[in-house]
Specification:
Blueprint: H1 3-11, H2 13-30, H3 34-59, E1 65-68, E2 79-82, H4 84-100, H5 104-111, H6 117-136, H7 140-159, H8 165-195, H9 200-207, H10 214-231, H11 239-246, H12 249-274, H13 277-283, H14 286-306, H15 311-332, H16 335-366, H17 382-396, H18 402-416, H19 420-446, H20 451-454, H21 465-483, H22 489-500
Antiparallel strand pairs: 1-2
Helix pairs in contact: 2-3, 2-6, 3-4, 3-6, 4-6, 4-12, 4-16, 6-7, 6-12, 7-8, 7-12, 8-9, 8-10, 8-11, 10-12, 11-12, 11-15, 12-15, 12-16, 14-15, 14-19, 15-16, 15-18, 16-17, 16-18, 16-21, 16-22, 17-19, 17-21, 18-19, 18-21
């Protein structure tokens, strides 16, 4: 391939990163065997991660890539727009997925009927396509299309599990997701009726002349509620615990690490790019509402997590709590606070992926996620539970782990506002996280194993590398992101600086 062809291919990366998983999903849909579909999914995900890395390198210096689909310039045509924030999220979604996807080989094989496995990978790639599309598009309605692609495929991924409760969970998710999508598209409709445009940059420019007219406020309200449902903002989180608890292990891990993060990204994009955050936060109590809901989610979900009897439901409620930290950073609306919220997107994605992979490996071996059945399991799977313990400490925010970096920046953002009470709240919430993580570890290492489990043989005689390597990589990443914050925090801070600078 000559240099001009290479240059031409590089210019098409914004479209290729979306089209590649879409084409891959079409291919997996016609493959007869799950192993072949997994191989295609592996190659496609790795290819997307490479493209995301290249795009991240292109915009690291502050450049913005504007790709016009079909050659039609915005606002008449659909624009794919890559800046520091979108490149950061794009690399997060594809990078974490690339590490996780080897795990799917044995997990999907054991949890999903053989004739459904190829369809599962089709849904996975469609969901990946939708999430990537949300991140790269600069068109409000196109974001809705990708939002629905990712959501519909996520419903199917959850429902494909053998557990009948997964069907109920998928249905509940579908109902809540449909309500959220309806609110979102109504908000977009208000924006279009006011501005005559769907391009986010163009809409932002035209909204400046309208101020805070009632239709603008209505659009903001609909978008806030719709995206709040999609990202499981407390108290709009009721769909999440069942979806995470009863979905196949890989589906749970993938959705926990990526889906809610992309919804938060879309909320940040609207607040800080479309409506321009400084105008909203100065004129309206949006930040107060967001901070109040975030703190309620952080404490309420953590307390509920402590009383769960199923480890996947425990981690699901933990996710609701951790989402609160992300939105708390958005609500603080200063550089350190927003940096903390954005870097927690990455840190929590890596942390929760490691936790759910560890639980998925335990489930593969022992076919249970009930905490009382897992008593003493740490002595039979010490390395897996060690990985769980390290990732669990990241949830708590122990120094040397990724979670500490996030909470440090959030605390700095609170101090900048003079809110020492919030610093104390962050510390107290970390102690609550320690209680439910410590409860799991105490059961796993200190309690005797139940008789029904003591004589049961594991389902897998040896640990497959496709499961142990992703778990090891993610666990090491939890430590690396904690010991050297430059890996993630610098990217998040650069994105936060870009967003804060857009104020009038």
């Amino acid at each position: 391939m000559n240099a001009s062809a290479t240059m031409g291919l590089a210019e098409q990366l914004p479209a290729l990163v979306v089209v590649t998983p879409l084409i891959g999903s079409l291919l997996t849909a016609v493959l007869p065997r799950g192993h072949l579909a997994w191989a295609v999914s592996l190659l496609v995900t790795w290819a997307c991660a490479v493209m995301a890395f290249l795009l991240l390198g292109k915009v690291a210096g502050g450049e913005v890539i504007s790709y016009h689909l079909g050659g039609w310039p915005p606002p008449w045509g659909i624009e794919y727009r890559i800046d520091r924030l979108s490149a950061f999220l794009l690399f997060l979604v594809t990078g974490v997925s690339a590490v996780m996807v080897p795990f799917a080989l044995r997990s999907v094989e054991s949890e999903i009927a053989s004739h459904k496995q190829a369809w599962f990978y089709t849904m996975y790639l469609l969901c990946l396509c939708g999430l990537v599309g949300i991140v790269v598009t600069g068109d409000a309605f196109n974001a809705f299309v990708f939002l629905e692609i990712s959501s519909l495929s996520a419903y199917a991924m959850i429902a494909l599990g053998r557990d009948r409760r997964a069907l109920v969970a998928a249905y509940q998710y579908l109902v809540m997701g449909t309500i959220g999508a309806t609110f979102y598209v109504i908000g977009v409709g208000f924006l279009y009726s006011l501005t005559g445009s769907l391009n986010m940059v163009d809409v932002s420019t035209r909204l400046g002349a309208l101020g805070f007219a009632p239709p603008v406020l209505a659009a903001l309200a609909f978008l806030f509620v719709g995206l709040g449902l999609k990202l499981a903002l407390f108290p709009l989180h009721s769909w999440l615990p069942g979806a995470y608890a009863y979905a196949p292990s890989f589906a749970t891990t993938f959705l926990a690490a990526t889906a809610t993060k992309v919804a938060i990204y879309l909320m940040v994009r609207y607040f800080y790019s479309v409506f321009t955050a400084s105008r909203i936060f100065e004129a309206l109590p949006i930040n107060d509402i967001l901070i109040a809901l975030s703190l309620a989610g952080i404490f309420g979900a953590s307390i509920v997590a402590f009383f769960q009897s199923d480890i996947k439901r425990l981690l699901a409620y933990s996710s609701v709590s951790q989402i609160g930290y992300m939105t708390l950073g958005v609500g603080l609306a200063n550089l350190d606070g927003l940096t903390g919220g954005l870097v927690h997107l990455l840190n929590h994605a890596v942390t929760k992926a490691a936790l759910f992979l560890a639980v998925g490996f335990v489930f593969l071996q022992w076919r249970t996620c009930r905490l009382e059945d897992l008593a003493g399991i740490g002595r039979r799977m010490p390395l897996t539970l060690l990985a769980f313990a390290i990732a669990g400490m990241s949830l708590v925010g122990v120094p040397g782990t990724a979670g500490f970096v996030s909470k440090w920046y959030l605390a700095l953002g609170a101090i900048e506002k003079g809110w020492w009470w919030m610093v104390i709240a962050i510390m107290v919430s970390s102690l609550i996280s320690l209680f439910y993580v410590g409860r799991v570890l105490e059961l796993a290492f200190m309690r005797p194993q139940p008789e029904v489990m003591a004589y049961r043989k594991p389902s897998v005689a040896s640990s497959p590398w496709t499961m142990t390597v992703p778990l090891a990589v993610l666990t090491l990443a939890v430590v690396a992101l904690g010991l050297d914050a430059t890996y993630g925090a610098d990217l998040a801070r650069a994105a936060a600086e870009m967003l804060i600078a857009r104020g009038p």
